[in-house]
Amino acid sequence: MKTTTPNRWLTLCVLALTQLVVVLDGTIVNIALPQAQQELGLTDGQRQWVVTAYALAFGALLLLGGRVADYWGRKRTYLVGMVGFGIASAWGGVASSGLELIIARGFQGAFAALLAPAALALLTVTFTHGRDRNTAFAVFGTIAGAGAAVGLVLGGVLTEFADWRWCLLVNVVFVIVGLVGGILFVRESKAEGDNRYDLLGAATVTLGFGSLVYGFSLAEHGWGAPDTIGFLALGVGLLTLFVYIETKVAQPLLPLRIVLDRVRGAAFGIQAIAGIVMIGATLYLAFHLQIVLGLPPLEAGLANLPLTIAIMIVAPVATKLLPVIGPRPLMITGPIVVAAGLVYLSRITADGDYFVQVLPGLLIMGVGMACVFVPLQNLALTGVAPHDAGAASAFTNSAMQIGGSIGLSVFTAVYTGVVAGAGTGAPTPEAMTSGYSAVFLGGALVMVLGSVIAAALIRGPKSALMPQGEPALHLG
C-alpha cells in the first residue's frame, strides 16, 4: 500500500470524525442524565445503565468488531457501523421509556465496536509509514483524548439550550457526514488468508461480562441476595468457559498469550481500574454538580474540563520522562496521585464551593491520570508479536470500557446503600453528598490497588519494558 493514497487527508478527516463520535458518546449523556431521569422516571439504579449499556456493549464486542473489520472488509464494516450507530442514536433520542433508552444505548455501543476498530485499521493502511503517518496518528490520538471533554461540553450545551434528547439526535448529523465521506474517500481493505470467527468465544465473553455487570448492579438490593449471587456466579462461569474455549480454537478472539504475560496483564488490569474511575466516579461528580450544587448543564459540563486539561498539559511532560525513568515509576506513582485527588473530592459538602472542594481534586486527578495513560499503551504492546498487536491494542480499550461498566455498577450499589442508610425517605442533598463521597473513596481504594499491581508485576530492566520500534496501533 502506497503512502500516497489518493485523498488520504480527506480520509483522515472522515476517520477522525468517527473517532470523535465514538469517544464523545461515552460522556455526552452524563450531563443530560438528570433531565432524562426526571422525564422518563428512571430510578438511580436504572440511571447508571444508560451509561453502562454503552460502555459494556462497546467493550465486550470490540475484539469481535476488529475481527469483522479485518475479515469482512474495513470500509464495509465502517459503513454498516455508521448506519447502525445512527439508527440507534435516533431511537435513543425519541425513546419514550427508560428501557427503550437503555436498549438503544446498548445498540450504540455494539455498532461503536464495529466503527472504532474499522476506523483505526483504515487509518493504519492509509498512512503506512513516515512523517504523514506520524501526523495522522497524532491528529487521531488528540481527538481521542479530547473527545470525552467535547462530549461533556456539547452535552451541556444541548441539554441547557435545546433538550437532553439532542445529545443523542446530534449523532445523526455526524453519521450523515461520516457516511458521505466514507463512501467518497475511504478505500476498501481486508486481511487475506484463512480467517475464521470465534463466535462461541464472542458469545461467552459478552454474556459473561453482561452477567457480571448485571449481578453487581443488583447488589444495591443486597450482596447476599440469591439473584445477585446467581448472576455473579453465572458471569464467572461464562468467563471461565471463554478462557477454556480460547485454548481450543485455532483462531481465538483473544489469544491468551497476550494477557498471561506478567507486565501486559498488569497493564490491562490498571487500564480497567482507570476505566472504573474515569467512567464511574466522574459520572457521580456530574450528578453532584447538577443535582446538589445546582449548576446548569453547560456550567456542569465546563466544570469537568479541568480534569481533561490537566491530563493534556501533563501528558507531554510524562512522555519526555518515559524514556528517562521508564514506565514503572509512572505506573506506581500515577494511581497514588489519582487516589489523592479522589480523597480530596470525598470531602465535598452539600453547600460547598466548586473552586474550593472540587477543582483542586480534578487537577490532582488529571496529573495522576496523565502519568498512567502515557506508559499504558506501551506496556500493553511490549513484546507482542505483530500478529497479536491488533488484539492486544483492542483488549486495552476493552479493559477500560468493561472496567468502567463494572465499576459503575458497584459504585451505584455503594451510593444507594449509603443513601438508604441515611433513612431520610426521599434523598436529601446531604444524603446524596454522603453517597458521592463514598463513591470517591471507593475509587481511591481501587486506584491504590492499581499502584500495588504496578509495583508487584511491572518489573524488569527499563529497556525490556519499552517496546522497540514503532508500536502497532491496528485494532483489527
Automatic annotation (TrEMBL):
It holds the Pfam family MFS_1. One of its GO terms (molecular function) is transmembrane transporter activity. SUPFAM superfamilies: MFS general substrate transporter. Its main location: membrane. The keyword Membrane applies. It comes from the Bacteria. Residues 11-462 form the Major facilitator superfamily (MFS) profile domain. GO terms for cellular component: plasma membrane. Coiled coil: none annotated. It is found in: Cell membrane. The keyword Glycoprotein does not apply. InterPro entries: EmrB-like, MFS, MFS_dom, MFS_trans_sf, Sugar_transporter_CS. It is a multi-pass membrane protein. Keywords: Cell membrane, Membrane, Transmembrane, Transmembrane helix, Transport. The chain crosses the membrane at residues 49-66, 78-96, 102-125, 137-158, 164-185, 197-216, 228-245, 266-289, 301-318, 330-348, 354-381, 402-423, 435-458. This is MFS transporter. It comes from Herbiconiux oxytropis.
